[in-house]
Amino acid sequence: MPIKRICCIGAGYVGGPSCAVIASKCPDVQVTVVDLSEERIRQWNSDHLPLYEPQLDDVVKSCRERNLWFSTDVDKAIIEAELIFICVNTPTKLFGIGKGRAADLKYIESAARRIATVAKSSKIVVEKSTVPVKAAESITNILQANVKPGVKYQVLSNPEFLAEGTAISDLVSPDRVLIGGEKTDQGREAVEALCWIYEHWIPKEQIIVMNTWSSELSKLAANAFLAQRISSINAISAICEATGADVSEVAGAIGTDSRIGSKFLKASVGFGGSCFQKDVLNLVYLCECLNLPEAAAYWQQVVDINDYQRKRFALRIVESLFNTVTDKNITILGFAFKKDTGDTRESAAIYLSKYLLDEEAKIRIYDPKVEKEQMLRELTSPMISDNPDRVSKLVTIYDDVYEAAKGSHALVLCTEWDEFKTLDYKRIYADMLKPAFIFDGRIILDHEALMEIGFHVETIGKRLTR
Ligand code: NAD
C-alpha cells in the first residue's frame, strides 16, 4: 500500500535526520516533522539546524519545502498523515516510588493521546522511540479507548539504530531495519506499508519483520550489548593500570578472535549519550518488574562499571595533581559525548567537571561544536545539580583551545574530536603551568611525543613510564 503522507512527532536527533532521509529517498511521499518546541522547528527551517550531524545539512536542503516540512502544527500533520512515526524522547525517570529507574513514557503517552484526540481517519502508528517491552500495547490501549467510529489503528514497532555522528550514513545504509507488528490481516497490511517506504532504498533481505515484543526488546538488547562491551573492556583497563598491561594491546589481541570482533572494544573514560545508560536501566527495570533479580543485577553492573570508570579517572587526576585541585585551572577538552556531534547528554565531560568542581577546581571548557549555554545548562541540570552561581564562578567556556590551555595546570581530554590529535602541543606546553599534565580519557594522543615535549601524561588502561 503506497503511503502518501507521513507525520513524525518529535523533531530531535532521531525524528529530524530519519525523516530527512525518508523524504530524500521517497520524493513522492510528503513528510512533515512536528515538535512542540517552536525554537527547534524554527532552527530546522533555518540555515542553522538544531543539531550538528555530518551530511545532515545537505540532505535537509535537498528536500526541505519539496516534500519535507517542519512545523509546530501537530494536529494538522496528524490529521493529514496515513502513517505517524512517534520519535519523542523517553528519558529515565529521575525519581520514583517504583522499582529501579523506569523509562518515563509521558511524552509517548501525550503523543498517543494527541493522535487519539485529533485523528479523523485510520492511522498506522509507528513507535520509533526506544521503549520498554509492551509499550506498543499501552499506545494501542490509549488509541482504542478514544477511538472514533470508522477509525482504525495499527501500532508497529520500528526501533531506530542510528548512532549520532554517523546518523546519515547509518540511515542510508543500515545493517538492518526491524519492524514488529501483529500477525493479523490488518497488522500484515500495516507492516507492508512501512516496508514499502524502506524498500525505496534498503534491500528487502535487510528488512526484518518479527513480533512486536521481540522488536521492542531487540532494541534494548542491542544497546545493552554495546554498552556491556565498553564496560567489559573498561573493567579490563583497571586491571591493566594495576599490572602494567596495556589495554589497547589486550583489546587488539582479543579483537582478532573472529568470535569476538574488534568493534566497541576501545577503553575510555566511559560511555555517554542519551541512550546507553537509559536503555540498560530500562532493561534492569524490566528484569525487576518480571521478578528476575539476578538478570537485573547482571545488567546493572554495566552501568555501575561506567560510573566506576569515570570516578577512577577523576580520582587519578586529583591524585596526580598532588592530591589537591583546589583553585587549579583544569581545561576540559571536549564536552560532547563523542566526536562529530554537538550532543552533550550524559557526556563523560559533565561528570568529570562535576567531580572536579566538588574538589574546588576551576574548570575551563573547550568544545568545537557545543554551545556555551548548553554546557552551563548541563552542569546545573537536576542530574548533576550544581549551584548555577558556583558554576558561573568556577567554570569558564572558551572558543579558542589555546586560550583555554594558557595558564592551566592540566588538560583533560574527554571527547575524541580529531582536531585534538593535531593541536600544537609545544605551544600549549609553553603556555601551561609546570609541571604540565595531560589526562587522555580517550587514548587518542601520541603519548610518547607529549612526554618528549615535557608533559606528564596519564591515560586509560596503561601505565606510562617516564
Ligand atoms: P530528542 O530529545 O532529541 O527529541 C525528542 C523531541 O520530541 C523533542 O524535540 C521534544 O520536544 C519532542 N516532543 C516530545 N513530546 C512531544 C509531543 N507530544 N509532540 C511533539 N513533540 C514532542 O530525542 P532523540 O535523541 O531524538 O530520541 C528520541 C527517541 O529515539 C528516544 O526514545 C531515544 O532513546 C531513541 N533513539 C535515540 C537515538 C540517538 O542517538 N539520539 C538513537 C536511536 C534511538
UniProtKB/TrEMBL annotation:
Active site: C275 (nucleophile)
Oxidoreductase found in the keyword field: yes
Assigned keywords, A-Z: NAD, Oxidoreductase
Keyword match DNA-binding: no
GO biological process, one term: UDP-glucuronate biosynthetic process
UDP-glucose/GDP-mannose dehydrogenase C-terminal domain residues: 331-447
InterPro entries found in the cross-reference section: 6-PGluconate_DH-like_C_sf, NAD(P)-bd_dom_sf, UDP-Glc/GDP-Man, UDP-Glc/GDP-Man_DH_C, UDP-Glc/GDP-Man_DH_C_sf, UDP-Glc/GDP-Man_DH_dimer, UDP-Glc/GDP-Man_DH_N, UDPglc_DH_euk
Catalyses which reaction(s): UDP-alpha-D-glucose + 2 NAD(+) + H2O = UDP-alpha-D-glucuronate + 2 NADH + 3 H(+)
PANTHER family: UDP-GLUCOSE 6-DEHYDROGENASE (PTHR11374:SF3), UDP-GLUCOSE DEHYDROGENASE/UDP-MANNAC DEHYDROGENASE (PTHR11374)
Family: Belongs to the UDP-glucose/GDP-mannose dehydrogenase family.
Function statement: Involved in the biosynthesis of glycosaminoglycans; hyaluronan, chondroitin sulfate, and heparan sulfate.
NCBIfam families: NDP-sugDHase
Protein name (record): UDP-glucose 6-dehydrogenase
